[in-house]
Amino acid sequence: MQNYFTMRKSVMSAQKWNEKGVDEHEKDNLSEALSHYTNALKLEKKDLEKGLYYRNRAAVYSDLSDYEKVIEDCNSALKLCCNDALYHRCLALKALEKFEEAYRDAETIISSDPNNKAFQRLARRLLKIVQECKENSHTSPKVSEMLDLAFDVNSSEKEREIAMNNLLVLARDETGAEEIFKKEGVSKIVQLVKEEKNEGVICSAIRIVGELCENNFSRTKFVMKHVGLPWCLELMNSTSTERVNASQYCLQAELQQDIINSHDDKHQAELQILRSQLLKMTKEKEREVSMQEVEEMNKL
């Protein structure tokens, strides 16, 4: 029986092995499909057919999420003029987060197949990712540098104030905001505010938290959970107009995102009431601070 199978296997053509591979692949029998395509590749001498078999095997590797093997087989197929392999390689590169290479493949596909809507959409997404990655590569070191300087107690007050202001500017851009957030900027700011004496540094730090919440619910959710509204309310209990304003801005940003993303009408109504109360409280606090400033001036 074994001799019969061995003999039958040896007389099967590469084309037949490929057909068996296609059948098994369609049945989702991936290991069998791989084996059959490999047998086809061992027997095939013609470049065109061999390129096709490499492409077919790459498709199986793709289903197995073995993207390195996908790229390897696609490269072999492309050398043998099987341009269809470019589709599989592009998707494998994307899966491996090699976005720039994937984008180049997508552009090549579109140039030869301009009506391919799917890859046009993919190319647009990849281009956006590539641009963001390039932007991140410039922003990330800047954020790290400013964070190190702003929270370095050995730096001068002026240096730290400038660094914190730079972080505030960076936080107004989504890329910068995300980098500050990823580098645990929120927890660092909360700790800094407890100990900091420089009012300029404190106010910029508070505003940074507000900027991180702006237009981003996931970061706002983190701030609400790990910092909370009481933090802002406590900061508002100050004789500094700037600190009161910074705290108000931070509160507004947090509440605005919570309101926008709340699908519970009752919760939204409660948040709106809280927001109104906070506005009223802020104005009262501002009047109180102004009166204190006037009294201080009169004493002089």
Describe this structure in words.
- This protein is mainly alpha-helical and 300 residues long.
- It folds into 2 domains: 14-96, Alpha Horseshoe (Serine Threonine Protein Phosphatase 5, Tetratricopeptide repeat); 139-298, Leucine-rich Repeat Variant.
- The protein is built from 16 helices and no strands.
- It has helices spanning 2-11, 14-26, 30-43, 47-63, 67-79, 85-95, 99-112, 117-150, 157-171, 174-182, 185-195, 199-213, 217-226, 229-236, 241-261, 265-299.
- Helix 7 packs antiparallel against helix 8.
- The longest helix has 35 residues, at 265-299.
- It is rod-shaped, with a radius of gyration of 31 Å.
- It starts with a helix and ends with a helix.
Condensed summary:
By secondary structure, the chain is an all-alpha fold. The chain folds into 2 domains: 14-96, Alpha Horseshoe (Serine Threonine Protein Phosphatase 5, Tetratricopeptide repeat); 139-298, Leucine-rich Repeat Variant (Alpha Horseshoe). The protein has 16 helices and no strands.
Strand element count: 0
When the domains are counted, the total is 2
Largest sheet: none
Poorly predicted sequence stretches spanning 5 or more consecutive residues = none
Give the count of helical stretches: 16
Helix/strand order: HHHHHHHHHHHHHHHH
Structural class: mainly alpha
Spatial extent as radius of gyration: 31 Å
Q: What is the fourth-level CATH superfamily of the largest domain?
A: Leucine-rich Repeat Variant
Keywords: Cytoplasm, TPR repeat
GO cellular component, one term: cytoplasm
TPR repeats: 14-47
Protein name: Protein unc-45 homolog B-like
